[in-house]
Design goal:
With about 290 residues, the protein is mostly helical. The protein has 2 domains: about 20-65; about 70-290, MetI-like fold. It has 12 helices and no strands. The protein starts with a helix and ends with a helix. Mean pLDDT is about 85; it is low at about 1-20.
Length: about 290
């Protein structure tokens, strides 16, 4: 078949031929329809799982003593959402999350810039970093409770210690990833050190810092809820334990869903801010074109 024939068939099917450039309006419509289709598939997948769980609980394949019907769980979720106590518990969890993440960022970014700019300093501190980074966060809970008691300070301490390392390492990777040709050229043209930092080093490290913050935000939320579950600190984790202790299974599952929704919303918020602030970066342009 000739190339003209193949192009004609592609045109009849509504599919652009290979290498063809679409008009901006049509390209936008195709991208929008693809996103709507992807959203529909995701929603269909979630609804299918929920329907399967509902049927399994109703017909007895899953014991109602442990897996109440999905409709009961979402009815309880609706009741919780209409009341003030749920939002108070979410605020308590997010309070420790935000303070701990902010302190970890304020500490990790300057140290990361220092270590990334000085190979000797990084080699000196590498053993300490590699020793402290894998320490399980749960193993620090007894120490945190001993020093700070059961409260906000305990959660903040744990979050700062655990989230400090991923942010630090991402900043180090970002600073060391600066193109040496660009760095040497700027130095050769006499660009001052502060100008090299703000015009070359910081833009190069910005995507790494954003990735480190997104990873640390997820870790911080998991750790905040874990601390509340284990030691009974005020927050969503404590509410889950109370519901489980009182055999209020729909309430327990509803609160677990809330923690998942909080994590999802935070991740989406970080991604939105990252796209807005780093829209000039090639990686963000590639994401937008998908």
């Amino acid at each position: 078949m000739s190339l003209d024939g193949a192009a004609t068939i592609d045109a009849r099917r509504g599919t652009p031929a290979a290498g063809a450039r679409l008009p901006p309006g049509r390209a936008g419509r195709l991208l929008a329809s693809r996103r709507v289709r992807d959203l529909g598939l995701k929603v269909s997948g979630v609804l299918t799982v929920l329907l399967a769980l509902e049927l399994c609980s109703r017909v007895g394949l899953l014991s109602r003593d442990w897996f109440p019907p999905v409709t009961d769980t979402y009815a309880e979720l609706f009741r919780l959402g209409m009341g003030r106590p749920l939002w108070v518990e979410i605020g308590r969890t997010l309070n420790g999350w935000a303070i701990g993440l902010a302190l970890a960022t304020l500490l990790a970014v300057p140290f990361g810039i220092l270590l990334g700019s000085s190979p000797a300093a990084y080699r000196m501190s590498r053993v300490v970093i590699e020793f402290c980074r894998p320490v399980p966060s749960v193993a620090l809970i007894p120490l945190a409770v001993l020093v700070y008691g059961v409260g906000l300070e305990m959660k903040v301490f744990l979050i700062v210690f655990v989230t400090f390392w991923p942010i630090l390492l991402q900043v180090v990777y970002g600073v060391t990833d600066v193109d040496p040709v660009v760095r040497d050229t700027a130095r050769a043209y006499g660009l001052p050190a502060h100008a090299r930092f703000f015009r070359i080093t910081l833009p190069s490290a910005a995507p790494y810092i954003a990735t480190g913050l997104r990873i640390a935000a997820a870790i911080a939320l998991v750790l905040a809820v874990t601390a509340e579950l284990v030691v009974g600190a005020p927050g969503l984790g404590q509410s889950i334990v109370v519901a489980q202790s009182n055999a209020q299974l729909p309430r327990m599952y509803a609160l677990i869903i809330v923690t998942g929704l909080v994590g999802w919303v935070l991740n989406m918020a970080f991604q939105a801010v990252e796209r807005r602030l780093l829209r000039w970066h090639p990686s963000q342009r590639q994401e937008e074109s998908r």
